[in-house]
Write a structure and sequence with these properties.
Layout (H helix, E strand, L loop, with lengths): L1 E6 L4 H15 L8 E6 L14 H9 L3 H17 L15 H12 L3 H15 L6 H10 L4 H8 L5 H14 L6 E4 L3 E4 L4 H18 L21
Parallel strand pairs: 1-2
Antiparallel strand pairs: 1-3, 3-4
Length: 235
Amino acid sequence: MKVEIWSDVMCPFCYIGKRRFEEALAGFEGKEQIEIEWKSFQLNPDLKTNPNISINQYLADIKGWTLDHAEQMNEHVTQMAAQAGLTYNFSKSVVANSFNAHRLAHLAKKHGLGDAAEEALFRAYFTEGRNIDDTETLIEMGTAIGLNAEEIKQTLESDTYADDVKHDIAEAQYLGVRGVPFFVMNRKYAVSGAQEVAVFKDTLAKAFTGWQEENPKPAFDTIEGESCSPDGDCK
């Protein structure tokens, strides 16, 4: 069963939602039959990368908050993240447009490394304070999860996967996604936001039950003969 997750690397609740979903999935009986696909979303596509401004100042400027209020809001989110086992260092976060990070994630998805890329990008932004719009940084991150450095470089120096990112965003708009994280299970159930683990467990169970009904295991009338099993037992 496919689970599609729309998120933005800059979204603090997306990383928290990832952890809570992973906790729900870890205890789910049908987890081996779950296929996860990450989808791109941009909360602020017009954002200009600016390593010279703090994330607190950026939020204060765009939302009309005081700097103190921005710091308080991020401290609250930091505490939420800690409860999910994550370390947020907003004082180190680099204000950066996430478009190229999403292109890297699409390249990683092509090689079966989509989840590894998302994890690396979230960690880079929220914990390590790295610039997720910097080519050398993205090359280093990509190679660390198993991608080829030259392929990453060629991707980032061209417009490769730009249409894929835009398609994901357009698809989210078509589906009525108004915020991230947004989890779609079997294209029949959706969870919006970093919900509690219990919500993910319940929704997974409902979606999986429906998926099993739609995709029953084939039943054969089998004529038995000499054969070998995966454990090496031949008879």
